[in-house]
Specification:
With about 210 residues, the chain is an all-alpha fold. It contains 13 helices and 2 strands. Helices cover about 55% and strands about 5% of the residues. The longest helix has 21 residues. It comes from Chelativorans salis.
Length: about 210
């Protein structure tokens, strides 16, 4: 069966992993060390949701390779600081060749920083809000294969979160963007069945202390 059909690929170390990192060193490191591992840090959650918004229409690899530039440009995604950005900051960022110079996405990040502060005031933290939407056991597939992953880039839960965030004034948070965020931040474990990282990530998720 082809790699494209199984969704798996063998690495130079002989281990089988999800297909999408294509054995590119930086992408492979992201797959192994970050993707799917549970996160409760508000700055990292905010960063990822914003960067998923910037990814819209692009590949995640493009964003990943510019991530340090984004962090420098957006005050390490400290949303308390980003919320104070002005139109002068927008112009500055539009001139920054190290990031994606898209005015709508830049303004969206500033807007979402302000909405993040409001959400924290209401919920206590971003982590509490997002982890409250973690799928229940009965909502998770017993086995995840490549076809399932490709066919379902969004779920009912990501659609509900998206709708809720939009009601609160967030932008660039469509259902597919939210689901990619859920995958990356560990709210679901979408390492494909047969990937060497799937069991390790699930063990980390089981040990993870959910925000309450």
């Amino acid at each position: 069966m082809s790699e494209e059909r199984t969704g798996l690929i063998d690495g130079t170390d002989g281990k089988t992993r999800c297909f999408w990192h294509a054995n590119l060193p930086d992408y492979l490191a992201y797959h192994d060390n970050e993707w799917g591992r549970p996160v409760a840090d508000d700055k990292r959650l905010f960063e990822k949701l914003c960067l998923e918004g910037f990814q819209s229409g692009l590949s995640w690899l493009t964003i990943l390779r510019k991530r340090e530039n984004f962090r420098e440009a957006f005050a390490e995604f400290d949303f308390e600081q980003v919320a104070r950005f002005t139109e002068e900051d927008v112009e500055r960022l539009l001139g920054n060749a190290g990031i994606i110079r898209h005015g709508g996405k830049i303004r969206s990040t500033i807007n979402n920083a302000r909405r993040a502060i409001e959400l924290c005031e209401r919920e206590g933290s971003l982590a509490r809000y997002f982890w409250r939407h973690e799928p229940a056991l009965e909502e998770r597939p017993d086995k995840l294969d490549y076809a399932t992953l490709v066919a379902n880039p969004k779920t009912d839960i990501s659609a509900r979160i998206s709708k809720d965030l939009k009601k609160m004034g967030w932008t660039f948070v469509g259902p597919t963007t939210v689901y990619a965020f859920m995958q990356a931040m560990g709210l679901v474990n979408d390492h494909i069945e047969g990937c060497v990282m799937r069991a390790e990530v699930e063990e980390e998720r089981q040990a993870f202390r959910r925000p309450v």
